[in-house]
Amino acid sequence: MMRETVFLTLANYLPRFKFFDKSRHRLLSLAGVVIEGACQIWAPITIRPIGGAKNITIGKGSFLNTNVRFGVPEEKVTIGKNALIGPNTMFETASHGLVHDEKTGRGTSSKPITVEDEVWIGAGCIITQGVTIGKGAVIAAGSVVVKDVMPSTVVGGVPAKFIKYTDPSKQQGSSTPI
Description:
alpha/beta, 2 helices, 30% strand
């Protein structure tokens, strides 16, 4: 845990120059994040709790903008290759129950999050536990994703809903997937 703290702190406090943005992933790898190849990460990023870095995988060629937060107490967040993650995006693998029990409180549940290859997540999005975002999907800025997103679609809103396909040939006469 000390190793994670030291290397995450170093990665977050490197100057914001192009050279450091392109090499920050190396420090995050030393902190315990699984990095599958060169990628660009702008700092700072937040990983909660300490010890959660091992629950994050980032694919080759991906880009993470500033202030990306990973809530990964038990389950994993997997980001595929060539994904684009906007600033102030949150990945939350844990949640609490709706009903408060006097003896046990609200309880906690945890499920993994999967972001497949070539996904673009806009600024300020929240991705909740158990969600898979399909290859090539686009999440509009400010969206809260609570259900799986089909590949090659655009979704947006709170909660996120289908907007359109990214492939124009699928627009005619198709049903709504989300």
